[in-house]
């Protein structure tokens, strides 16, 4: 009887949990929208009829439909154009409703520029280019090399995979140009100017899905998920900033079930306080270097609109660690922590990350009074940068 009752309440809880979570609507990244437009344009180029929406394969191998805004094929110039309007769901995203257009047309090899990417897909080669409204990377330390269009690795892979799935036998060299209406104006509201990305927005996304991590309502979801993990009688849980860290921590700790790997977005303070109040045996916080710096500085909500990342404090900290004047000034003038890690030698960089992790753990303890906490820092490839425990 007691076993039945426990499972009844557990089932009731998860029904409530799913109902609460579904109140928040996910959206699509700029990368997913560009992929949809690219696949539709390639199909149109090859004589297929354009439908109102198109099925796109995402990194999780699931198929999702994305609506097309417009599609046209100019037979005279052999140019296909397809536009998608980005739907960011319930995430307060400045790129919501952005018009993303992909143009596909034949191109001569002599017209390829150093800023372009070249992708071989089945029997064809594609020149990926940023058109009007897509930014150009002008400094190091980003997922895209300096001097290239701000089209990130996962969107490029998504575009290649979805075009390949069409299985057309068409041969030749083709321009695949991505443009964003009013992209330069939209970019001024993003971090791109600070990051050294000029002329427009970035084509982004690691999962293709925009999860409303920044929405205040998402904090309620985090609370529900933590309560669910406790109901499952889990001893060790992980609080992760997003998809990459969640995947990486799952590989590091395969014994933690999915219910114990919780994506907290920017809500580090309320998430870790609620987790510690539930009496878990151990809490792991998984993040990337940029978030680690914010944790070390004591920020309770790490969203870019709440915390503008500046490196004056890190430069002073670097001086305390014995870094030279030139390096300190270079740190002060950097745009991202990743950029800093690229020009600092490995051993001092590891020392800096370890010390920042220690400061972050100190803040976590001050917030919660709970000591069995660890921080694991991953890079964008999911590789471990550092791992440190408070105990």
Care to describe what's here?
- It is a single chain.
- With 391 residues, this protein is an alpha/beta fold.
- The chain has two domains: 27-210, CbiD-like (2-Layer Sandwich); 216-389, no CATH class.
- Helix content is 38%, strand content 23%.
- It contains 13 helices and 19 strands.
- The protein has helices at 2-21, 30-45, 153-164, 183-187, 192-195, 216-231, 243-252, 268-277, 289-296, 312-320, 325-332, 337-343, 346-368; strands at residues 27-28, 53-57, 63-67, 70-74, 79-85, 99-106, 117-121, 124-130, 133-134, 136-137, 172-180, 197-198, 200-201, 209-210, 236-240, 261-263, 282-287, 373-378, 384-389.
- Strands 4-5-6-11-8-7 form a six-stranded mixed beta sheet. Strands 16-15-17-18-19 form a five-stranded mixed beta sheet, sandwiched between helices. A two-stranded antiparallel ribbon has the order 1-14.
- Helix 2 packs parallel to helix 3 (153-164), helix 6 runs parallel beside helix 8 and helix 10 (312-320) runs antiparallel to helix 11 (325-332).
- The longest helix has 23 residues, at 346-368.
In short:
Helices cover 38% and strands 23% of the residues.
- Give the CATH superfamily of the largest domain: CbiD-like
Query: Looking at the structure, what is the overall shape?
Result: globular
Distance between the termini: 41 Å
CATH fold label of the largest domain = CbiD-like
Spans of at least 5 consecutive residues whose pLDDT stays below 50 are 1-13
Radius of gyration: 23 Å
How many separate domains?
2
The number of distinct helices, counting runs of at least 4 residues, comes to 13
Mean pLDDT: 90
Secondary structure tally: strands: 19
Helix content: 25-40%
- Main sheet specs: 6 strands, mixed
Strand content: 15-25%
Strand order, main sheet: write it out.
4-5-6-11-8-7
Q: Specify the CATH class of the largest domain.
A: Alpha Beta
Specify the structural class.
alpha/beta
